[in-house]
Specification:
By secondary structure, the protein is an alpha+beta fold. Helices cover about 35% and strands about 20% of the residues. It is extended and about 65 Å long.
């Protein structure tokens, strides 16, 4: 993914001048007490995806850097609720002896909505997008060009299925028959082996 950078001093002189605050570092806990935000790294990386999210580093009161993704034009309240659900799941797992013995837990990260259209997401290092795994499998299988997106494959099958039932594919999605949707999704699942996510030889 292409990236570019911004100078924080030019983008936000206020954040550039920040040297201390009482704001807690999102998603970070410490046995030595609360960690607060004491600054923002001068360089902000812009990821060249659709909404141009910004990757930035916050400097904690402990001197460590904590990386986050600042997303705009997107409501993160649902993401926040999902993370809260995963936190509850972990509490339930920790209360189970068998789950503790198997060290079962759901990995989650901090999501902090800043409004209805922006928010911070805690950066997870060494994570691999599911689409990257799927794309690597397609490349190895050489079934279709790797430039073809999953949504394109879904659309092609869906259009054919709708036409077979005499339904105009341009009809609103809420009017698409549920059984046809389920059939197409099942076809895609049958065509994709279950080992795609766990196959470490894809890279």
């Amino acid at each position: 993914m292409k990236r570019s950078s911004l100078d924080l001093a030019q983008v936000s002189p206020v954040l550039h001048a920040l040297t201390s605050s009482t704001v807690l570092m999102p998603g970070v806990s410490s046995c030595n007490g609360s960690i607060t935000i004491h600054g923002v790294d001068q360089h902000v990386t812009v990821l060249q995806s659709k909404t141009k999210p910004k990757k930035l580093s916050l400097i904690g009161s402990d001197g460590q850097r904590y990386v986050y993704l600042l997303k705009g034009r997107e409501d993160l309240h649902l993401d926040e609720r999902i993370m809260q659900l995963l936190d509850t799941v972990n509490q339930l797992l920790s209360a189970s002896r068998s789950s503790n013995e198997r060290q079962l837990r759901a990995r989650h990260y901090a999501v902090l909505p800043l409004g209805d259209h922006s928010g911070l997401i805690q950066w997870v290092e060494h994570a691999q997008p599911v689409f990257a795994l799927y794309k690597a499998w397609l490349k190895r299988q050489q079934q279709v060009p790797t430039s073809v997106r999953p949504i394109d494959m879904f659309s092609a099958k869906m259009v054919a299925a709708l036409k077979a039932r005499g339904i105009n594919p341009s009809a609103p999605r809420r009017e698409w028959p549920l059984d046809t949707l389920l059939t197409v999704i099942q076809q895609l699942m049958d065509e994709t082996p279950g080992y795609v996510i766990i196959d470490t030889n894809l890279f």
